[in-house]
Design a protein that fits this description.
single chain, alpha/beta, L-arginine/glycine Amidinotransferase, Chain A, 4-stranded mixed beta sheet, 3-stranded mixed beta sheet, 11 helices, 18 strands, 25% strand
């Protein structure tokens, strides 16, 4: 049996993140981006440990911003620790390490974890080309997964296919959802057919069935339409999907096409999907640039869900929909307009490190 990628709601040992380093991406919003990354790290540390990678020379800055060295700091442990150790206060450690990185979207440049047949973890190291060679350089990010896996002492499985973690969502039971807009884009794997891409996903991640949505976000030109902006598994056979209620929204018709595909689909076990729609959208502006906060770009932590919000009345409506879809989890919002300005959200800057699944 091939290693299988577990669902995001599987118990985590830690959340992996990377500290902002590409100043030219953020421009005058660079310092604000750091504040939002730190806020996300602190919010997640209420549920599980955080391991933050910083570029060489930036660890002290990251520690200070996240409060990793400040006893009693909001949302932090007050000291470093190895992932997996829980503080008596109920707040988990934020540890900062240094490794060479080009950018800070660890969901996409980092490894994708899977469980081998005996429950041990492996890290699948797909190639990374900066979302179709959009940002230079990306050499360090392409090498990052291997370095991090060596640091974590987790075996590495190499794939020559270009793939970002934000391009897929899985149920942990053999079903994967992705978008044609992204995964079939010629700037990723121009020499691979759709069938060859499917075969590689099945071989490396233990996938049995792939559901292809036609669209990601129309305005998501940075990732070419990652699925984590429009749909996510939240439980076996249960998917939340973006469905803008404003007819003038550029994705109004496109997301209804996605909905039709999901409603007609079954998962790898033959179950019809329960589809929960999130009609709320919220727009804003950062440095004069219009942005949209993607409520579906959330991170499922141990017992919680951390959601990017805009600071508008629609936030509470969206959080209520997600809370109903995630019974038993504490759903919290973190203001993240600058993450949207940079091209993503909370899910894009995080990657779950699942616990081993030994019997």
């Amino acid at each position: 049996m091939n290693p299988r990628m577990p669902a995001e709601w599987t118990e985590h040992e830690a959340c992996l993140m990377a500290w902002p380093t590409r100043r030219e991406l953020w421009g005058p919003a660079f310092e604000a981006a750091k504040r939002e990354y730190a806020a996300v790290a602190r919010a997640i540390s209420a549920f599980e440990p955080v391991l933050m990678t910083a570029a060489p020379g930036l660890a002290d800055e990251a520690r200070a911003a996240c409060g990793a060295d400040a006893p009693g700091g909001e949302g932090t442990t007050g000291r470093e620790s190895t992932p997996g150790r829980e503080e008596a206060s109920g707040i988990h450690p934020i540890e900062v390490i240094e490794l060479p990185i080009d950018d800070s979207w660890l969901r996409d440049s980092g490894p994708i974890f899977a469980h081998a047949a005996d429950g041990t973890r492996v890290g699948v190291d797909f190639r990374f080309n900066a979302w179709g060679e959009k940002h230079h350089p990306w050499t360090a990010d392409d090498k990052f997964a291997a370095l991090l896996l060596d640091r974590l002492r987790i075996p590495r499985v190499h794939s020559s296919m270009v793939l970002e973690g934000g391009a897929l969502t899985v149920d942990g039971e053999g079903t994967l959802i992705t978008t044609e807009q992204c995964l079939l884009h010629p700037n990723r794997n121009p020499r691979m057919s759709r069938a060859e891409i499917e075969d590689e996903l099945k071989r490396r991640l233990g996938i049995e069935k792939i559901i292809w949505l036609p669209y990601g976000g129309l305005e998501d030109t940075e990732t070419d339409g990652h699925v984590d902006g429009v749909a996510a598994f939240v439980a076996p056979a249960t998917v939340v999907v973006s469905l803008p209620d404003d007819p003038a929204h550029p994705d109004h018709a496109r997301m209804r096409a996605n909905l039709a595909v999901l409603e007609a689909s079954t998962d790898a076990r033959g179950r019809r999907l329960e589809v929960i729609t999130v009609p709320q959208t919220s727009r804003g502006e950062v440095e004069g640039v219009p942005i949209e906060i993607g409520y579906l770009n959330f991170y499922l932590a141990n017992g919680g869900c951390v959601v990017p919000v805009a600071g508008t009345p629609r936030d509470e409506e969206a959080l209520a929909v997600l809370a109903a879809a995630l019974p038993g989890r504490k759903v919290v919002g973190v203001q993240a307009p600058v993450l949207a300005y940079g091209g993503g959200g909370v899910h894009c800057i995080t990657q779950q490190l699942p616990k081993e699944a030994r019997a």
